[in-house]
Structures are given as structure tokens and as C-alpha cells.
Give the backbone structure.
Amino acid sequence: MLNAVHLFKGLKRPLMHADDKEADKSVLVYSWRPPMDCVWSPSRFDGNVILRSAPSGRVFVVLVREEREPLTKYHNVGTIVGSVEKWNWVKEDPTLPEAPVDWQERYAEKLWSRV
Amino acid sequence: MSTPEEGIRALVREAFAGASGGFRPCAFFDDRLDCIRVIVRECSVLEIRVNQNLTVLEDNYHQDRGRNTYVGFTVKGARHFCVEHGLSMSAPIEIGALLDAILKAFPDLAVEFFVNGIARQLVQEGNIERVDVSRASGPKPILSPA
């Protein structure tokens, strides 16, 4: 994620989490085009990871949720201000390199780019 | 000194040390992202957006494996969708009823292809009948007046 090229904020779809009816607004989305993909072999339950070249024409997207209040209950890792919720591949936008296709329809705003 | 791959392998084995067996086709409610996820095969996936509420999952490497292209789908904004379309979250939801509600909610060709051409085959292939959404209990979304 240190190599992320774009950071977006807010999902343009309904998202409720616990009593937060507007949890979509607090989601951060990092995107970039990494050189490698990691594939479980044969399954994640076996723990074997194979590195292979990233699929072409795709970008890697990581969804992170900012915690409403910093979490301090996990003493071994320190204060937590956000959690990685999910990652996946998405087709690359034809006009904004290293961003997901249709990013304007997916996300509320683009916070920054390093293009 | 271990390689990064060996480090990941050790972490994952530790995380799944209490799990038995391997991957099985499944449908589950993702509480933190408010989604219903149906996954028939575990692999590196490309997420293709059908519309604001629907995503289909494609195997990134289906061509070199000669396997089925599609491996699952996601219904996003699940709490809102279920309330709006009369699907009770107090009991497991029939996947067939969920797909029927999707067709009714989004009457267009892309969604029809998604439901009848992809999703129904996936749930049949995975022998998935219901999804437990009990984790979605709690405050319900308030629907805007039509």
C-alpha cells in the first residue's frame, strides 16, 4: 500500500455497519498497479503462496475503514486507526492510469494521486 | 533467513491452524462491508461491477486453467436491499428469492444476464441454497419515501 498511486474516499452505495447508517462515507480506497499477484496453492488453508505476474489491464484495490475512535485494546500492535477490509483486482480506467475503471461512479471523491 | 513467501506461509498456517478441511462453496453475510457474498471457487479474482449493488467475480487466470470464467458474485448494500425488497433478515434467505428480488429491482438486460446467465448457474454448481444474514440484525436502514 506504500506504493498506492491513488486514494479515494467514500463508496457510492448504501453501507450500514453496526449503528452507523453512513459507513460508506468512511471507507478509504487505495489503488495501484503492482507487478505481482499472490495466489493460494491449492487453497489458503494450506498456506502456500505462489507469486506470479500481475494480470494485465488490472489494478489492485484495497478498502480500508477509518475507525470512528482509535482502538487501543490490542496492546501488542499499538493504537489502530483503520482496518483493511478487503482487497481485489479491478479493470484499469482507460483515462486515469492505475485507477479502477468508473472510479467516478464508485467513489465519492479522490483525495490524492501520485501520477 | 526466511523469504517473504515463507513468512506469509507461516502466518497463514498459524491463522488457519484451528480450521479443518479446505475451501467449500459458500454464501455469507459480510457484516463490515454490508454485502452478501457468494463464492464457488477460491482463486485470484477480478471484480466486475454490474451496477451500484451487484458485482460479479471472474477468475483472473481462467484462460490458462481452462476453468469456468465466473466464480462468484456480491450483493452490496445488503441490509438496505433486503429491507427495501421485503426479505426478512431474521432467518436465512433463499438465494433463489434473493436473485428474483434482484431481477425485479433492476429490470435491465445486464442484470438479467447476470442473474440468469451467471448467478443461478453458480449457486447450482456450488449447491448453495441459503445465506445466513443473522449478523445483519440490529438497527435497520430507514428507507426514504418513494
